[in-house]
Design goal:
The complex is a heterodimer of chains A (about 200) and B (about 425). Chain A has about 200 residues and is mostly helical. Chain A is about 75% helix and about 0% strand. Chain B is α+β, with helices and mostly antiparallel strands. Chain B has three domains: about 45 residues, no CATH class; about 30 residues, no CATH class; about 280 residues, no CATH class. Classes of the chains: A mainly alpha (about 200), B alpha+beta (about 425). At the A-B interface, helix 3, helix 4, helix 7, helix 8 and helix 10 of A face helix 1, helix 3, helix 4 and helix 5 of B.
Chain lengths: ~200, ~425
């Protein structure tokens, strides 16, 4: 049953070509497939939840408006994340500009950050300490589940650089997360036990 | 863990974990990891880190946002959406490349026009003015509208015309037509009547043909009873020819002669000066009168009185000295009166240079060397000009950027907000 579903399921690229011809259903399908990932992509990189939501909308609207010009040079996923990356960079540029010229304070943004669990905040704090490029590669790999090739294409980096930077980021993150294990040994121990059971 | 104890690196173990290895490399790393306790431990640590990282959750996209995106998609597929309207507006606002090129060309054209037009108009106006004055002289009409007339004698002439005495005008017109004016230069009495002004005009004209222009200059001199104090013609084989001359024209003929000279070509520069020498002349006349009286008295003494030979000789010496002074002053007086009676026109006549075919006298090597030197010099000059321009205009540009930055930013934000509002409105609809 699942195999049949997989066979009948259209690829992202086919759906995108359908969107180019004006298919609303194809766009809805694509949106359904990627809304969580794209929102997560922005949510993990931005201070304000509202801004993340706004940029998510912008990214899909950009896909919609650019559908007529779409050419399959890479996977749709890479195309979508390239749009997201571009929007994110533009947003960051504007934020820096606002911060410098319009007296925009970072505290204002942090006030708008949604409350997270202790674990989320701890991980977020650790990730923020990473080198920006290492962090980006790590997040693209862990959350967006992009392959090394896709990350290299998206960030215009050599493949080996992506691999070595990812390794460096994971090692650094492991070191950064160690203190938490000592603070909350019970929880980690529980998780280890769970992992052991699964194994 | 290093490659001396392990045949694979941690990076490769990580890549295996991520499913990024293929073929023999994958088999080799997988084969090692299966039996290596340290590598397994490393993999577990990696998995643990990944699990912890993935505990970082992000909230879901709100339903309102989902609806907005889907509504936009629906509108996009069914007809023109607010976003499309934005796009069309953007297209309207954004400048097409060909428009930019066209605009650039237009800007360059306007700039060139702004540079060239004043010079062109100036030379045209000068030529027209010359023609007007020439024509008025022929027909006997008033030349009140002539703008260049510094000569007091010219003004006097106009006054006499305005006063109803048509004889002067007729005489002038006859002179102009026949080329023989009845009064080529002013008499000493005429000169002494009004303020005495020695006029000097410097004029640079670009003519098409210097040879022809030279003949015309000679004709103008003959017509107005003038003469050339000096005249130099430069006729280089491989370059533009030029003529330099210092012409003396009777002051009353200056305006007419000048207008005719201007009609030789395009006037590039024109400078007119008037030096008042009335006081200098009056001083000379007074001194001359005194010296003559002194001379008369000395002669009377010599004739009427008798005395020693030495006294006679002393009187004769004094007479000779006074005579010398008188002659010197008479010469100066004549010179001053001549300067007033005859205006000086320093004429520079350049030819519109047209490159001729042929190698000329210079060898190919010499020409190449000259070209290289000229090229380098021009390049350096251009670079210098560019730097000077940037230094010169930089502060002004920065000032304007600083002044216009905030208004432009404000307008841009207004526009963005307006477009966003339009989009929201369209989505609500």
């Amino acid at each position: 049953m699942n195999e049949n579903t997989d066979e009948t399921r259209q690829s992202d690229e086919e759906l995108m070509r359908a969107v180019a011809t004006g298919s609303e259903a194809a766009f809805t399908e694509l949106f359904g497939r990627y809304k969580r990932q794209i929102h997560g992509y922005f949510g993990r990189r931005m201070e304000e939840a509202a801004a993340a939501e706004e940029l998510t909308q912008e990214a899909f609207l950009a896909v919609l408006c650019g559908a007529a010009r779409y050419e399959q040079r890479a996977t749709f996923r890479t195309y979508l994340y390239a749009i997201a990356l571009k929007l994110l960079r533009a947003h960051r540029r504007k934020s820096v500009f606002r911060g410098k010229f319009a007296g925009y304070r970072k505290e204002d943004a942090q006030n708008g950050r949604p409350d997270g669990t202790e674990a989320s905040l701890w991980v977020r704090g650790a990730v923020e300490k990473l080198d920006p490029m290492d962090r980006e590669i790590l997040l693209l790999r862990e959350f967006e589940e992009l392959s090394y090739d896709e990350i290299a294409e998206l960030l215009r980096l050599p493949l080996n650089t992506v691999r070595s930077r990812l390794f460096r980021a994971r090692e650094a993150l492991r070191e950064l997360l160690k203190p938490r294990e000592s603070i909350a040994p019970a929880k980690s121990g529980q998780e280890s036990a769970e992992t052991g059971e699964r194994a | 863990m290093n490659t001396s104890t392990h045949p694979v690196t941690r990076e490769e173990v990580m890549a295996l974990q991520d499913g990024e290895l293929a073929g023999k490399e994958r088999e080799a790393v997988a084969g090692h990891v299966a039996f290596c306790r340290q590598c397994n431990e490393f993999l577990k640590q990696m998995e643990q880190t990944s699990r912890e990282l993935r505990s970082w959750g992000v909230g879901k996209l709100s339903e309102a946002a989902e609806k907005r995106v889907l509504a936009a998609a629906k509108e996009k597929t069914t007809g023109q959406t607010g976003r499309d309207r934005q796009e069309s507006r953007k297209e309207r606002w954004s400048v097409q490349p060909w428009v930019m090129v066209l605009g650039g060309c237009a800007a360059v054209f306007v700039l060139l026009l702004a540079i060239i037009a004043p010079n062109l108009l100036r030379s045209r106006m000068a030529a027209n003015e010359g023609r007007t004055i020439g024509a008025s002289r022929v027909t006997g009409l008033s030349v009140d509208n002539a703008t260049v007339d510094l000569s007091p004698y010219g003004r006097k002439m106009k006054e006499s015309r305005a006063g109803g005495g048509g004889g002067e005008a007729v005489e002038e017109s006859e002179g102009a037509e026949t080329g023989q004016s009845g009064r080529p230069a002013m008499t000493a009495e005429e000169i002494r009547q009004g303020p005495m002004i020695a006029q000097t005009v410097e004029i640079t004209v670009v003519a098409k043909d210097v040879s022809g222009a030279r003949g015309t200059v000679q004709a103008i001199l003959a017509k107005h009873h003038g003469y050339a104090a000096y005249l130099t013609v430069n006729t280089e084989r491989s370059g533009p020819r030029s003529l330099q001359a210092s012409l003396r024209i009777p002051a009353r003929e200056l305006v007419a002669a000048l207008s005719e000279l201007k009609s030789l070509g395009a006037v590039q520069t024109e400078t007119q000066k008037g030096e008042e020498v009335t006081q200098q002349h009056a001083d000379l006349v007074a001194r001359l009168k005194n010296s003559r009286e002194t001379e008369k008295r000395l002669q009377a003494i010599l004739q009427q009185r008798t005395g020693k030979i030495a006294d006679v000789l002393a009187v004769e010496q004094e007479i000779a000295r006074v005579r010398g002074d008188i002659e010197q002053m008479e010469a100066e007086q004549k010179s001053v009166e001549h300067r007033v009676a005859f205006a000086t026109i320093d004429l520079k006549l350049a030819e519109e240079y047209k490159e001729q075919l042929g190698t000329g006298n210079i060898s190919a090597g010499g020409r190449l060397r000259n070209a290289a030197v000229t090229g380098l010099r021009d390049a350096f000059q251009n670079l210098l000009d560019a730097v000077v321009s940037i230094i010169g205009a930089g502060p002004t540009l920065l000032l304007w950027v600083a002044v216009l930055f905030f208004p432009a930013r404000w307008i841009w934000k207004k526009r963005q907000r307006w477009m966003w509002g339009e989009s929201k409105a369209a989505e609500k609809v």
